Amino acid sequence: MHVMQYEITLPADYDMKIIRERVATRGHLLDDFPGLGLKAYLIRERGAASPVNQYAPLYLWSAAEGMNTFLRGPGFQGIVDDFGRPEVQHWSGLAHLEGPASGAVPRTAVRRRERIADTVRPAEAMEAALEANRRLAAAPGAVASALAVDPRHWELLHFTLWEDEPDGTAGERYEVLRLSAPERAALSADGQGVR
């Protein structure tokens, strides 16, 4: 599994209805995209528990070829044409687990980035994070949870989709406008969710 996200921060007075309409009219185009486990169409709105207006879709790729095809294809070029070329963040997937609400349509996503300190052994940090991911994925209302690592910056990425607004979960909150999930089952096909 490969995790990818780009964040498009928009002006404070930007009409977020434009993004909502974009997702409503174009989101279906990835519903059968080869190699895509899932894409969460995420936004944050200034003043609604966020300091910024932002469109920040997050992708879980079941195959690197799918990610590469997307980045050189017309869908991503449309983002570049409309908003400029964003920095694409990328992490190697460690786990994807379905939660007790896996059949529900997620309304909220929470993303938390965690730096692995230089004094901590990477394997120990990842094992602790995998255990935390298992607990998070089992929480009531959890739709799915993913964990990934960026070994260049030694950063862990925790990402969870929720049926509603979760209580007491730390991290940046996003509204989920839509979910495309053509190869979602392949993300945790080994039964453990670890890839």
Q: Could you describe the 3D structure shown?
A:
The chain is an alpha+beta fold and 195 residues long. The chain has one domain: 2-Layer Sandwich (Alpha-Beta Plaits), CATH 3.30.70. The chain is 25% helix and 35% strand. It is built from five helices and ten strands, in the order ββαβββααββαβββα. The chain has helices spanning 17-26, 64-71, 74-83, 122-137, 184-187; strands at 2-6, 8-10, 36-44, 53-55, 58-61, 88-98, 108-115, 142-150, 155-162, 172-180. The protein has an eight-stranded antiparallel barrel with strand order 1-5-3-10-7-9-8-6.
Short description:
The protein has 195 residues and is an alpha+beta fold. Helix content is 25%, strand content 35%. It has one domain (2-187): 2-Layer Sandwich (Alpha-Beta Plaits).
